[in-house]
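subagent[fold] <- orchestrator: predict structure for attached chain, return tokens only, no commentary.
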Amino acid sequence: MEGQVQKRRILLVVAYDGTNYHGWQLQPESVTIEGVLNETLSSLFQEEIQVIGASRTDAGVHAYGNVAVFDTTARIPAEKIPYALNRKLPEDIRIQRAVQVAEDFHPRRCESRKTYEYRILNTKFPIPQKRLYSHWTYYDLDVERMQQAAECLIGEHDFKSFCSVNTQAESTVRRLYELYVGRDAGSPEEIVIRVTGNGFLYNMVRIIAGTLIEVGRGRLEPEDVARMLEVKDRQSGGPTAPARGLTLVEYHFVELEDKKLEKPSEIG
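subagent[fold] -> orchestrator:
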């Protein structure tokens, strides 16, 4: 219709330090990533804006590349939005990229792959500079045992034993494409658990990490993890590792393969 303002849907790749936030999802009387984005975007574009996030990360969880979309009538080119938005956002939230996508694109309703990393600081004493981005444990951890246990989780399984009892998911079946455990070549005192899947249940990565830590310290055998899958009962799974060691690294959307939304190569 002539004179009608056309709305556009913009996708943002968002990096943040989750230390000072009560997670991603909007909550009354709590500061969240989603809340800050809504407020800042609304102020910038002088219209009410509410983002739709791809992953509702928990309090204390970090991200190099979470994804959110929003609708706007503003005519500013998408590639200019990060510059304008980053001038207004707090320094622990930064937009890495913005692209225009189809009006019906929804980041939680399409085929995607998501990658997380969980970092474990395995030293005799804590290192203060790493306290916010890794889980410290002084127990000697056997990385080979942890990797052996991890391999049985790769593929499509019912991960009911590896998700919070409070999950609201209709199905607890997920597919893991990769689950790697190894020491960081640039920081060998850190053990990295890197997992890629088509989706994750509530607390799933943190429970996997907590379980693998128990295997690494010898309190569980690698074959115990396979039995946990079969039981399909949260009571049989390992503990939930703390949030601060977890970082959402990147998203890959099949229908946006030409958009290059992966995390910048210079990051981690």
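orchestrator: received. Logging for downstream: The radius of gyration is 20 Å. The helical segments are 33-45, 81-86, 143-151, 204-216, 222-231.
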